[in-house]
Every structure is written in structure tokens, then in C-alpha cells.
Amino acid sequence: MGFNGVLSGMLILTFYSVIAGLAVAYFYNSVRGVFIGIESHSAQALFASTIADPWTLLFWHSLVILFTIIVVARGIRGGLEKSINLMMPGLLLILLVLLGYASSTGFFMDSFYFLFMPDFSKLSWQAVLIAMGHAFFTLSIGFGTMMAYGAYVNRKISLVRASLWIVFMDTLIALLAGLVIFSIVFANQLEPGMGPGLLFQTLPIAFGQMGGGWLFGSLFFLLVVMAALSSTISMMEPALSWLEQNWGFGRLKGAWFLGGIAWLVGLGTVLSFNLWQNVHLLGERHFFDSLDFLTSSILLPLGGLLMGVFMAWTIRADIRASQIPLKGLSLNLFMITLRYITPVAIIIVFASNLAPDNVWLLSLIALMIYVLYVVNVKRQGGY
User: Fold this and answer.
1) 279 inside domain
2) In this structure, is residue 339 part of a structural domain?
3) Mean pLDDT, to the nearest integer, of 146-156?
4) d(CA 70, CA 229)
5) Are residues 56 and 164 in the same domain?
6) Does residue 381 have a pLDDT over 70?
7) Is-above-0.70 flag for pTM?
């Protein structure tokens, strides 16, 4: 479980830093006024030329890795805590400013209805599985980020209360960002279902055509950059903590060592958008897609499942009680969810990612293994 957490976090960092670098590049372009008056074909050409140039991607990728190394090397309070304490309030402030602008576009209610009015005809089983998979990523479930941060939390702070706040704030900020983005999209008669292209190809057109677009476009991409950099910091920390505790690395040495590895492996993602487009690793996936599939579809669900099993059946009851001080009905609901609902849900997500054509067969096999494990734990006097 621990090795899975360290490995998945570092692997995600190797390609996430390239995407974060792209966001930094677009913030820089916005500040320079590149998007002012930009047309659709120009926005598409800008994106295509940016990812087609390995040297451009390498520069911004290197900049993100360097920033991450410097922050993490400064330690818990001087680096992690100080940077997060600056970036998170700043992120929320920028988001609220953009929300105020979005409400003045005249399309705020269109955005609201688009997000919140249910259309159950589009709610497929596959959509539910995709949403569950996204939940792992957005909440950092399944890799070591939460374990590392949890280990640094003061013992007087309730982990249960902190977890609830994390889920609430993560969801709230995501919904606010959705209201901002789709208000801008609808105000400029753009297509809302563009996927990742919405960020780097569609929104620059909107900012280029609107009044005050330079300011709000720059604020928006600054928001994306701050969110991305706060994530790269959290991805390196578990591996650095592991090196400190098991191999005697100092923070400075460990940060540069891990940063060097992330930078080197990240070259594969940089090249997969241009020179290595036809180089495939897992099936028909190129380097970037392979890492994305390996982490989000395999390592994260596996890590979440292992953590759930560990907390539900493996850890001593007294240790669990000291970390999760629930009693009565709350404790019973928590344990029922952890032991019987969570494993089934994660196994189905896992199976759908690995074998979409044989989801139920693979899920059944995995559930049988889980049941055998539980029976064995109980037979040995486990919890």
C-alpha cells in the first residue's frame, strides 16, 4: 500500500508537470496580450504549435519541476505550509472575482441550469464509473498525498472533520469553477462539451473577444496555475517523506533527487505530443496516455482499495479508534461502508478500467478474492 502510494504520486507528477507547464505558458501568453482579439483558427494553431515544439514544452515542464523542488526542499512549515497558505486563499479570491464577472455576463443562469438541471437520459452506468474514477484523482485518494499530509496534522485535529471539509470545499470550488467557465462559454456562443480542449483552445477565444478579457483571462489562467502547482507539491511530498524515513535523505538532497527523476521521466510526456506520437507503450496508447491509464485506472483504484481493506480489517481496533474517534451509529455506518460498500464500488471501477467488456466477470472474481481474505482474517482472530 505504501509503495503504491509513493509510486503513483511520482508517476502522476511526471506528466502532470507537463500539463501544469502548459497552463503556465498560457498564463504568460495571456499577460502578454496574445489572446486579445484571437480567432478560432488562431487559438487552435497556437495550441498545436505549442505542443508540437518539444523545446517549448520542455522549458515550461522544467520550470514547474524547479518550483516544486524549491518549495518541497524548504520543509513542512517553510515550504509546504507557507505555499499552500498563500495559494489556496489566493485561488479562492480569484475564483470569487471571476464568479462575480460570470454573474454579469447575462448567461449565468444558463450555466446554472446546464450544471444542475438533471437529464437522467444521459446518466449511463459508464458515466457513473467515470465520475467515481475522477473522485480518486480530485481528492488524491489512492496515493500517498493524504497519508503524508495526515501524518503532519496535529493530533488535536479531527481527521473525520478535516476529511468532511476537504470533500465539501473540493466539490464547492469545482462547482464554482464550472459556473465561471460555462457562463463565459455560453456568453460567447461556444461549445461546452469540448473536454480538455475547452481550457486551451476554446476559453482563449472567449477571453480574446470579451470586454476586459485581458484581465479576466489572466486571472483565470493564474487560477489554473495555482491549483496545478499546489498539486505538484503534494505529489512529491510522499516520496520525499519515504526517502527521509527509510533512506536517510535530507530534504534538499531528496527533493533534487526526486525532481530529477520526475523531470527525466517527464521527457516522455513532452515527446509524446510531438516526436514520439507514434511510439506506443500500453496497447495503442502513447507515453502520456499510458502513464495516465496506469495511474488513474490501475494504481489509484488499487491504492484506494488497499487503504480501505487496511483500515477495515488489518489495523488494530484500538489504533483505528485513536485516529477515527467515532462511536455508536456513526461508527457502525462508517464500518459498514468501509467493509462492504467501498470495496464493491472500487472493485467495479477497477474492473471497468481494466476490462470494460468483461466488467462483471472480473468484478466477481475480485469480490471472491476479497471475501476469502475477510474470511481468513476473521479465522485468525482479526477485526
Assistant:
1) no
2) yes
3) 81
4) 12
5) yes
6) no
7) yes
